[in-house]
C-alpha cells in the first residue's frame, strides 16, 4: 500500500500508522467517515470510503483544502508562489507571519499559512494561546519536494467526496450523530506536568476540552455510533491521566517507533486505538 504523505508536516500525523488503523476501522460504512480532527489529512486520503467529513479547528488549514478542491493546479501554484519565502530571509518570514496574523481574508490567509508552515522551524505549525501563529523561521522554503507532495495531494482530493468543516469537535459531533456514520478522532493528547506531550497544537487544548471529549464519546456510544480514537496509553512508564475514562472500551496497542521521529530520543510512548465496537 502506497501511503500519501501530507504536504504539511503535521505533528501527530497518522500516515505511518494508517495500515494498522485500517485493520480496525469498519470495512463498510453506510453513512460518512467523520474525521473529527483531520489535521494533515493522512487518514482521509489513505482510506477508501464513499463519503467523508474532514474537520479541523484551524480555519486556514480547512480553507486551504477547500481551495485545492475548487482550483486548477496552475492557478493554485501561481497563488502559492506569490507568498513563497526565501529560505535565506528571516525578514520575509517575519513580515508574512505578521501579515497572516492580522489578515481577515481567509482565502489569502490560507495561502500565507501554507507558505509559513513550509518555511518555519521543522515545518511544525505552532500557535500561542490567542491562536496567533508564533513558530520561528526555519531557514527553509517551499521546494520541489513540497510541490511534488502537494500535487499528489491535489490529485487525490479531486477524486474523493470530502466535505470540509471548520467547527469545534463538540459542535461537529452534535451535528453528525447518526448510527450510519463512523467517527475517527485523533485529538491533541493530554499533557500534564508528569505526562508531558509536546506539540504546537496542544497550546489551545485544555482540561475542559479533554473532559468535553470524553463526554462526547459517551454521547456517541449512547447513540449507537461507532468510533475509534487515537491516543497514548503511557509515556515513560507514566499512565495517561485520562486512562480511567477510556479503559472501559477496547484498547488496541499499535506498533509505532517514536524514537525515529521524536526530537527527544528517550521517549518511550505506547500508542493505542480506543474503539467502542
Features:
277 residues; alpha/beta; Rossmann fold; Adenine-specific Methyltransferase, domain 2; 2 domains; 10 helices
Characterization of this structure:
There is one protein chain. It is built from 10 helices and 8 strands. The protein has 277 residues and is an alpha/beta fold. The protein folds into 2 domains: 15-57 and 167-275, Vaccinia Virus protein VP39 (Rossmann fold, 3-Layer(aba) Sandwich); 63-157, Adenine-specific Methyltransferase, domain 2, CATH 1.10.1020. Strands 1, 2, 3, 4, 5, 6, 7 and 8 form an 8-stranded mixed beta sheet that branches. The radius of gyration is 19 Å and the shape is globular. The two termini are 26 Å apart.
Structural class: alpha/beta
- Total strand count, please? 8
CATH architecture of the largest domain: 3-Layer(aba) Sandwich
CATH topology of the largest domain: Rossmann fold
Total domain count: 2
Present the secondary structure layout.
Elements: H1 18-24, E1 33-35, H2 42-45, E2 52-55, H3 59-70, H4 73-82, H5 90-101, H6 106-119, H7 144-157, E3 162-165, H8 169-176, E4 182-185, H9 207-222, E5 226-235, E6 238-239, H10 243-246, E7 250-253, E8 269-275
Parallel strand pairs: 1-2, 1-4, 2-3, 4-5
Antiparallel strand pairs: 5-6, 5-8, 7-8
Helix pairs in contact: 3-6, 5-6, 8-9
Amino acid at each position: 500500500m502506497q501511503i500519501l504523505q501530507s504536504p504539511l508536516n503535521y505533528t501527530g500525523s497518522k500516515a505511518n500508522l494508517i495500515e494498522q488503523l485500517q485493520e480496525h476501522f469498519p470495512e463498510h460504512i453506510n453513512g460518512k467517515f467523520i474525521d473529527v480532527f483531520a489535521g494533515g489529512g493522512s487518514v482521509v486520503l489513505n482510506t477508501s470510503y464513499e463519503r467523508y467529513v474532514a474537520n479541523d479547528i484551524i480555519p486556514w488549514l480547512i480553507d486551504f483544502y477547500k481551495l485545492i478542491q475548487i482550483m486548477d493546479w496552475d492557478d493554485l501554484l501561481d497563488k502559492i508562489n506569490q507568498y513563497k519565502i526565501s529560505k535565506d530571509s528571516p525578514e520575509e518570514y517575519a513580515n508574512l507571519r505578521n501579515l497572516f496574523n492580522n489578515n481577515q481574508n481567509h482565502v489569502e490567509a490560507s495561502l500565507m499559512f501554507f507558505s509559513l508552515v513550509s518555511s518555519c522551524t521543522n515545518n511544525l505549525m505552532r500557535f500561542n494561546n490567542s491562536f496567533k501563529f508564533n513558530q520561528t523561521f526555519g531557514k527553509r522554503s517551499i521546494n520541489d519536494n513540497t510541490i511534488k507532495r502537494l500535487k499528489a495531494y491535489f490529485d487525490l482530493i479531486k477524486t474523493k467526496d470530502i466535505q470540509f468543516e471548520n467547527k469545534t469537535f463538540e459542535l461537529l459531533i452534535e451535528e453528525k450523530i447518526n448510527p450510519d456514520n463512523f467517527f475517527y478522532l485523533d485529538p491533541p493528547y493530554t499533557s500534564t506536568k508528569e505526562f508531558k506531550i509536546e506539540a504546537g497544537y496542544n497550546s489551545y487544548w485544555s482540561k475542559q476540552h479533554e473532559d468535553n471529549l470524553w463526554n462526547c464519546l459517551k454521547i456517541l456510544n449512547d447513540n449507537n455510533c461507532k468510533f475509534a480514537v487515537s491516543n497514548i496509553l503511557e509515556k515513560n512508564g507514566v499512565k495517561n491521566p485520562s486512562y480511567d475514562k477510556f479503559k472501559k472500551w477496547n484498547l488496541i496497542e499499535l506498533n509505532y517507533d517514536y524514537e525515529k521521529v521524536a526530537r527527544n530520543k528517550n521517549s518511550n510512548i505506547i500508542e493505542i486505538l480506543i474503539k467502542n465496537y
